[in-house]
Design a protein that fits this description.
The protein has an eight-stranded parallel β-sheet with strand order 1-2-3-4-5-6-7-10, sandwiched between helices. A two-stranded antiparallel ribbon has the order 8-9. The chain has one domain: TIM Barrel (Alpha-Beta Barrel). It is an alpha/beta fold. It is built from eleven helices and ten strands. GO terms for molecular function: hydrolase activity.
């Protein structure tokens, strides 16, 4: 009888411990905060199949933008329960730098904001003093007026300038700026409304072991980071599932609350805050 009671106690204890975290890495929900479905991907891959790939990756959500916006709208129609749309200021691929000085890109954004609903403006590319150009200032104004956050592919200097234009701005820093962990830490200490996605930051985890430098930043700002694939070319769509599996492996080595926050809770909270603030 004592053995039976002891065995039952062990089972209940293990069950209680497991309740606080996924039993396996594959069970961890994932929100991909960096998905593009631009016109070249849309031409090669039907929106329904793209949505199926996101579902096969086990995603709980996806932050989607595209060049042009038609890809985003098509993927949203195919998976409205999964896709959170963001408006990229590019009418086609290849406008990464030309958009900064072309007033047509701003007219394009303004027109679409009047037709569709979004959670963000971006991803857009801007570095250094270019963040003071009129087109960038206008995007910041539009994000403020429409209660959206910004997705900036930027260096630390440009991020600082975005917040100077609007100290109340909310900024998702694509790729964590490709900056060093200490630079990211310093920026997040200065700005409480700065988040970062970790797309293409493969050095975060080598052999599924998280870098000590990055772990220190994650631990200081557990509510600021999220994962992303960055399907910037059609070929990257073939990697959505494998990238999700890799992300789950290293996330599952973190303390359960931290792993779940980076995996999906932070991104869900950001987009939910936008939707709830309207």
């Amino acid at each position: 009888m004592r053995r039976i009671i002891l065995a039952l106690a062990i089972v209940l204890t293990v069950g209680a411990l497991a309740a606080g975290r996924p039993a396996r890495a594959a069970d961890l929900p994932l929100f991909d905060a960096h998905i593009h479905f631009s016109h070249d991907a849309h031409a090669a891959l039907p929106a329904g199949e793209a949505a199926s790939r996101l579902r096969r990756a086990g995603l709980a959500g996806a932050l989607v933008s595209s060049s042009d916006d038609a890809g985003t709208q098509a993927l949203l129609a195919a998976a409205p329960d999964l896709v959170h749309p963001s408006l990229r200021p590019y009418r086609k691929r290849g406008e990464l730098t030309s958009w900064l000085r072309d007033p047509g890109n701003i007219a394009y954004v303004e027109g679409l904001l009047g037709r569709h609903r979004y959670v963000a403006i971006g991803e857009f590319h801007v570095h250094g003093a270019d963040a003071d150009l009129p087109n960038v200032r206008r995007l910041v104004e539009l994000a403020r007026d429409h209660k959206l956050f910004l997705i900036a592919h930027s260096d630390a200097d440009a991020v600082e300038r975005l917040f100077r234009h609007d100290p109340q701005a909310r900024v998702l820093w694509a790729h964590a700026g490709f900056e060093r962990p200490d630079t990211v830490r310093a920026a997040m200490r200065r700005h409480k409304a700065l988040w970062a996605d970790l797309s293409f930051r493969y050095e975060v985890a080598r052999g599924d072991t998280v870098s000590p430098d990055w772990l220190a930043v994650f631990s200081e700002f557990p509510d600021r980071f999220m994962v992303g694939t960055d399907t910037y070319t059609p070929e990257r769509w073939s990697e959505v599932e494998s990238h999700a599996a890799w992300a789950r492996r290293w996330l599952s080595t973190l303390p359960p609350d931290l792993g779940a926050a980076i995996a999906h809770r932070n991104a869900e909270g950001l987009v939910r805050g936008i939707a709830g603030g309207r």
